User: Which sequence fits this backbone?
């Protein structure tokens, strides 16, 4: 799964730590998400999208391989 977290976070001038605090996770979780090393729960995805003023599907992009 690809994400636009880093791009959207930077546009809002949020650090990884600030975003993590807003969604109540560790900064490392945001790092893993940005590097595509972790698939979030729907609840976490919704929290992140809300903080980035975006829709879930605009933050998290599924590849065809992800759907198999």
Assistant:
């Amino acid at each position: 799964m690809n994400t636009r977290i880093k791009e959207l976070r930077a546009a809002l001038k949020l650090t990884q730590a600030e975003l993590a605090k807003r969604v109540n996770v560790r900064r490392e979780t945001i790092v893993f998400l940005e590097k595509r090393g972790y698939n979030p729960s729907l609840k976490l995805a919704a929290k992140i999208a809300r903080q980035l003023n975006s829709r879930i599907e605009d933050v998290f992009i599924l590849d065809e391989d992800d759907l198999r």
Notes: The helical segments are 5-11, 16-23, 27-34, 42-51, 56-59. The mean pLDDT is 93. The chain is about 55% helix and 5% strand. The longest helix spans residues 42-51.
